[in-house]
């Protein structure tokens, strides 16, 4: 049985692209915090809603383990967890509750500039470097294409030049990084932005009301931003 809790805990990115906009959004919702000295935990002062400041990649796992109740994370990160769980026939543990309108980017396949792109079938037998192995495998399977996925945790865009892979699948916003590495985006696997991620099943303790309150306020803030 799940533990009964009377405070809501939200995981957000500690720094990086989503850290500041996430905190700004929560502040706009009327939340304020006292930060712990190690800058890992923020205690909610006016409402019993606390923050955990973490690496974005850790957020889906924290939700899955029930360490946090909500998270602000890129759809790309959440979808990678979902694809990984689906591949192992595990149930979904988190879902998108709201789209937040910042952190926009695409998960794109990019090929060397010199390639004459004719479509996904061209990837057959090729090596695809990515930090999103489950999403890429799921997509390849859907397309009926057999290709090798090379897992890299960073600097994916230099893999073709290093001979580690033929093409890449990576996050793109302006495309400048791709261009600088003589790569060209040819198709989009996922349109991403920051989302509020939460439980698949509703809370049955005090967190239910706190979550409803937060969602009401967030909807008000997001409507004004449109
Ligand atoms: P952390 O230290 O938390 O692991 P990180 O380096 O993995 O940080 P960021 O680069 O800050 O993460 O990206 C966080 C999220 O921002 C991404 O998962 C994605 O949803 C979004 N994002 C928007 N534009 C881009 C982009 N051009 N490149 C990478 N991520 C982007
Ligand atoms: Zn990360």
From TrEMBL:
Cofactor(s) it depends on: Mg(2+)
GO biological process entries: L-histidine biosynthetic process
E.C. numbers: 2.4.2.17
Any one Gene Ontology molecular-function term assigned to this protein's record: magnesium ion binding
Any one of the GO CC terms: cytoplasm
Described function: Catalyzes the condensation of ATP and 5-phosphoribose 1-diphosphate to form N'-(5'-phosphoribosyl)-ATP (PR-ATP). Has a crucial role in the pathway because the rate of histidine biosynthesis seems to be controlled primarily by regulation of HisG enzymatic activity.
Name of protein: ATP phosphoribosyltransferase
Source organism of the structure: Luteimonas yindakuii
Protein's gene: hisG
């Amino acid at each position: 049985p799940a533990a009964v809790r009377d405070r809501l805990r939200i995981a957000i990115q500690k720094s990086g692209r989503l850290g500041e906009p996430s905190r700004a959004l929560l502040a706009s919702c009327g939340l304020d915090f006292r930060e712990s000295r190690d800058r890992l935990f923020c205690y909610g002062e006016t409402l019993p809603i606390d923050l955990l400041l973490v690496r974005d990649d850790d957020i889906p796992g924290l939700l899955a383990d029930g360490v946090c109740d909500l998270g602000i994370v890129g759809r790309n990160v959440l979808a990678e967890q979902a694809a990984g769980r689906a591949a192992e026939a595990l149930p979904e543990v988190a879902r998108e509750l709201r789209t937040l309108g910042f952190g926009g980017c695409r998960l794109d396949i990019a090929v060397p500039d010199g390639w004459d792109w004719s479509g996904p079938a061209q990837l057959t037998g090729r090596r695809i470097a990515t930090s999103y192995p489950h999403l890429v495998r799921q997509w390849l399977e859907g397309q009926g294409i057999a290709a090798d996925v090379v897992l890299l945790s960073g600097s994916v865009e230099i893999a073709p030049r290093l001979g580690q892979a033929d093409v890449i699948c990576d996050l793109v916003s302006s495309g400048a990084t791709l261009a600088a590495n003589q790569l060209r985006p040819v198709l989009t696997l996922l349109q991403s932005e920051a989302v509020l991620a939460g439980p698949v099943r509703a809370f049955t303790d005090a967190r239910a009301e706190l979550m409803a309150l937060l969602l009401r306020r967030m909807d008000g803030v997001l409507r004004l931003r449109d």
